[in-house]
């Protein structure tokens, strides 16, 4: 039997890697896409171009996490065996500027989707893209039983989504899984997240196209892993024999400053000559340090991060250097 999966957020970093993974496993993949006045399929169009046969099993549908009717109709039409809820307003700083929209898309959007599945009476496994931002001010290491203390409207919205996922698991016996993922990056990372902002700037500075990189807090510590590896962890969570909550991370903390240093050094440059500071990139409340305790995922799912921050920075710089060469 061909398994059908529905991915919300398929046009994003994780959605595109997950779609590739599921197609490579023989799934029929359905993706929810938002209507946009400009092109927003740059991460997924190459999937069908690279493998037209797999592309025939990839289907895109318009919808929005803020529009419950579109979710109900989609779930009833597709009757998916697995739903991966990756769609979100995922930028922490932006969530301070758009708290209400962030809550609607990230928190209420999740319960809209869970209700769409429940009301359709489907035997369907559900994955919720939860985040280490939910730990916020609680010091590391952070694992499945660490107390939550979100520090942004994004973190608070995701915490609601996490708890409503756990509640639907307990109240309705749904196979609803919450994957609490620490930061994961890649050459497909959005350009306003700090790692990609740094690696793109490094490539441009090395090519003589830019002379400065303006950043905010350099002291923040994050547990940065490689997104391509993390989508395998999401899939494993839904293949496990019981619905649970799992943390994915590398277990290694790296500061923004260190990530900068590694990225600039990779092209033979001294970061201190190029990086300047502007308060506009600071947040009203910051999350100082996120470092995972990923032992449950290792022991139960056999999942382990292979790529850590140093190699990740180098592979992202290489990709951005290469992209500039191709562009020119
Ligand atoms: P991303 O690149 O920002 O992708 C977000 C996706 O959500 C995009 O496809 C976006 O569509 C879609 N989206 C946003 N608002 C929507 C709405 N109202 N209705 C429908 N779709 C909407 O995020 P990501 O890095 O791949 O992360 C995937 C998920 O994991 C997110 O939920 C994020 O919060 C969570 N997460 C990420 C990390 C990380 O480090 N990357 C860590 C923990 C958790 P457009 O392309 O049209 O904008
Ligand atoms: O790259 P960031 O914007 O990622 P952040 O806030 O950790 O959130 C990401 O990871 C979460 C998982 O923990 C996800 F849930 C979330 O969706 C997103 O993917 O910022 C990382 C750190 C922050 O401390 C920030 O203050 O970098 C600091 N930073 C310093 N200068 C900057 C900048 N961040 C951004 N985006 N831009 C700067 O110029």
Automatic annotation (TrEMBL):
Q: Name one GO molecular function term.
A: GDP-mannose 4,6-dehydratase activity
What keywords were assigned to this record?
Answer: Lyase, NADP
Quickly give the catalysed reaction.
GDP-alpha-D-mannose = GDP-4-dehydro-alpha-D-rhamnose + H2O
| Ranges that cross the membrane | none
Task: List, alphabetically, the InterPro entries matched.
Answer: GDP_Man_deHydtase, NAD(P)-bd_dom, NAD(P)-bd_dom_sf
Can you tell me which family this protein belongs to? Belongs to the NAD(P)-dependent epimerase/dehydratase family. GDP-mannose 4,6-dehydratase subfamily.
Q: What is this protein called?
A: GDP-mannose 4,6-dehydratase
| Source organism | Aeromicrobium panaciterrae
